[in-house]
Design goal:
The structure holds 2 protein chains of 2 kinds.
Chain A: H1 3-7, H2 10-22, H3 29-70, H4 74-78, H5 83-103, H6 106-114, H7 117-121, H8 128-156, H9 163-188, H10 195-211, H11 223-230, H12 233-246, H13 253-279
Chain B: E1 12-23, E2 26-37, E3 41-45, H1 52-59, E4 67-72, H2 77-85, E5 88-91, H3 103-113, H4 118-131, H5 147-158, E6 165-169, H6 177-192, E7 196-201, H7 204-210, E8 213-218, E9 221-226, H8 228-235, E10 239-244, H9 254-258, E11 263-266, E12 270-275, H10 278-287, E13 294-299, H11 302-310
Parallel strand pairs in B: 3-7, 3-8, 5-6, 6-7
Antiparallel strand pairs in B: 1-2, 1-4, 8-9, 10-12, 10-13, 11-12
Helix pairs in contact in B: 3-4, 3-5, 8-11
The chains are: A mainly alpha, B alpha/beta.
The complex binds adenosine-5'-diphosphate and magnesium ion.
Magnesium ion binds near residues 53, 93 and 169 of chain B.
Chain lengths: ~280, ~325
């Protein structure tokens, strides 16, 4: 450029170049998304059940079954709406969590350790950061599709009545997918086998689905468990999603949104760091 | 890029000086110097663990060096890795294909990583499938292909963006002889087309057949450098007499061995004698009272160069 840059010491300039080498490129990550879309087009049948159908089966089973059990008490818990309408927005985000974490588990580990295509990818103009950003973006995008499908079913069946509310729920699912997908990716890139996943899903992901306000208000939990819940992303997603669906005001919206974003952003940065460490020895 | 050279010196695409890679307390690559010139077929020959893969990874910009200088196309891979990688095709020692995708999809997806547009990728992919005799498998999934086909696809994939340098890490390890020769032919065609090729191998016949110039690596260092012919002339004698002793060679008198040829190496069950004339050396061995179970005379090879320089065989 001008005098300023030519005066800049060589060391500063190479440090900048080194940072640019390591940082995600503004657009290259989209080729990683493109690659994953190609993969997904080939094997979409496999994930249609877990991503799209299973959440509806759970909603039908629990919404109707538990709804009958809860009966007249439902109104006490739900503040007036049917039990199905109460749990539907929460189930939507908990399935966003399930889909995002499993998509960030095996498919990523496989590409690091088994089929090893990530090793080929970082030997192209893509760098490790581009690969991670692309992988996480694809996961979030896939969850957006599944959430849109779920929201569509809720609207058609009349469980949800407001299209704006449905759009809001989809947005919350996307945020939740980011909040879970990115940290899960960070975990996956450090693994040598999938044994760690069984542990993580049984001890953390599955229990979270029960204790984050999905089926009953979080206020029914002991205080310590409530506090703990707010340290995980799902409770924030559930709180936001439900308020979107039912049109009830939610206090501290930005606290919830901020928590989800923080999980996603920190997760992405850590994932990039650990992935680089694994790939660039 | 931007470099001008005198007409007699071809441009060096890769230049390494004192190149070093340390893992913990161990050096995987220990201060090596080499140069790869435009259009040549360059080899790293050495046994397992010599540091070949580590060197390749540093060149490909996926392994930051610990010390020394390294320039590829006159650029430092630490600072311009992405730009360098855009002009290098890399074939890894272990397969890195997407097994779920088809042969063609593997190529199409990869072209995008290099920022190519879809039309040029499609044209180039068709050419490469033809060149590597994979056209009739284009629509098949990769998983069930034979090892030789997978390896050819890996090479085709690495060439999608028409790189200036093709880097192959032990490309024929694990292939049967027929698949190996098919691959050698394809590589020689590529070289004739002007691609600079860098290859690592622990097969001396591969290095001898393919490389214009090579370095011999052992224990993180370069122990010799030159064309296969030069190396043999410099470091080995014209012929080699191999004497086999299934019961071991320890008991043989050193004085006797010294008298047979120009030099010798004593292995567990073989004595390798370097000499001008193998038949004459064999006669001398019998005169000295040696009684090998069998013997043979052959021309010296790179294997003998390696043995001479390190006292060990390549596959040890
Ligand atoms: N990531 C790593 N961490 C620690 N040691 C390594 C790593 N990669 C290679 N090495 C060591 O460096 C040496 C050279 O390895 P490598 O370059 O793979 O040799 P080659 O390809 O010639 O068989 C070996 O001793 C190997 O164990
Ligand atoms: Mg190797």
């Amino acid at each position: 450029m001008t005098a300023a840059s030519s005066v800049a010491p060589n060391r500063t300039r190479s440090r900048l170049a080194a940072i640019r080498e390591a940082a995600p490129h503004p657009t290259r990550w989209r080729h990683v998304v493109g690659y994953m879309v190609t993969v997904y087009r080939r094997e979409w049948q496999g994930s249609v059940f877990s991503g799209f159908i299973e959440p509806l089966v759970v909603l039908a089973g629990l919404g109707i079954g538990l709804g009958v059990l809860v009966g007249d008490k439902a109104a006490e818990i739900t503040g007036g709406v049917s039990y199905v309408a109460y749990i539907a927005p929460a189930l939507m985000v908990s399935s966003a969590m399930n889909l995002a974490t499993s998509e960030a588990a095996w498919p990523i580990l496989a590409r690091v350790a088994w089929v090893r295509i990530y090793h080929a990818m970082v030997a192209t103009p893509l760098n490790a950061a581009d690969v991670m950003v692309g992988a996480i973006t694809f996961i979030v995008g896939k969850v957006a599709f599944a959430a849109a499908f779920f929201a569509g079913v809720l609207l058609v069946t009349g469980i949800a009545t407001s299209p704006t509310g449905a759009l809001g729920m989809i947005a919350v699912s996307v945020l939740t997918a980011f909040a879970f997908g990115a940290p899960m990716a960070a975990f996956s890139v450090t693994q040598k086998s999938d044994q760690g996943f069984a542990f993580l899903f049984r001890l953390i992901i599955t229990p979270l689905g029960f204790f984050s306000g999905t089926y009953f208000p979080i206020e029914n939990l002991p205080f310590a468990a409530q506090v703990l819940s707010w340290f995980t992303p799902l409770a924030h997603g559930v709180a936001l999603s439900r308020s979107m669906a039912l049109g009830t005001p939610v206090t501290y919206v930005w606290f919830h949104v901020g928590a989800l974003l923080l999980w996603g952003i920190v997760g992405t940065v850590v994932a990039i760091y650990l992935f680089r460490k694994r790939m660039l020895k | 890029m931007g470099m001008t050279n005198s007409a007699s010196e071809p441009t060096a695409l890769i230049r390494a000086q004192g190149l070093t890679k340390v893992f913990g307390a161990r050096s995987a690559v220990d201060g090596i110097d080499f140069e790869v010139r435009d259009g040549e077929f360059f080899g790293f020959l050495g046994p397992n663990g010599a540091g070949k893969t580590t060197t390749m990874r540093m060149i490909a910009g996926v392994s930051p060096r610990s010390a020394g200088t390294l320039e590829i196309f006159d650029m430092d891979p630490d600072l311009h890795g992405s730009e360098i990688r855009g002009q290098i095709g890399v074939v890894h020692q272990q397969e890195t294909l997407d097994m779920e995708l088809t042969v063609l999809e593997n190529l199409l997806v990869f072209g995008r990583f290099f920022g190519m547009d879809r039309a040029s990728i499609a044209t180039r992919a068709a050419e490469l499938l033809e060149l590597f005799q994979l056209s009739d498998r284009a629509k098949d999934q990769v998983e069930p292909l034979s090892g030789g086909m997978k390896r050819r696809l890996s090479i085709a994939r690495s060439l999608i963006a028409s790189p200036r340098i093709l880097m192959l890490d032990e490309p024929t390890t694990g292939l049967d002889p027929q698949a190996r020769h098919l691959l050698w032919d394809a590589l020689q065609r590529l070289k004739r087309g002007g691609t600079t090729i860098v290859l690592t191998t622990h097969y001396m016949d591969e290095a001898e057949q393919l490389c214009d110039r090579l370095v011999v690596m052992d224990q993180a260092k370069i122990v010799a450098e030159g064309s296969p012919r030069q190396l043999i002339v410099e470091h080995a004698s014209r012929e080699v007499l191999e004497l086999r002793f299934p019961n071991g060679t320890e008991s043989i008198d050193t004085k006797v061995l010294e008298g047979i040829g120009d030099r010798y190496e004593r292995l567990a069950e073989r004595v390798i004698v370097g000499c001008e004339n193998g038949e004459a050396a064999h006669a001398r061995a019998l005169e000295h009272g040696l009684d090998p179970e069998s013997w043979l005379v052959r021309r010296s090879s790179l294997e003998d160069v390696f043995l001479r320089l390190t006292g060990r065989t390549l596959d040890e």
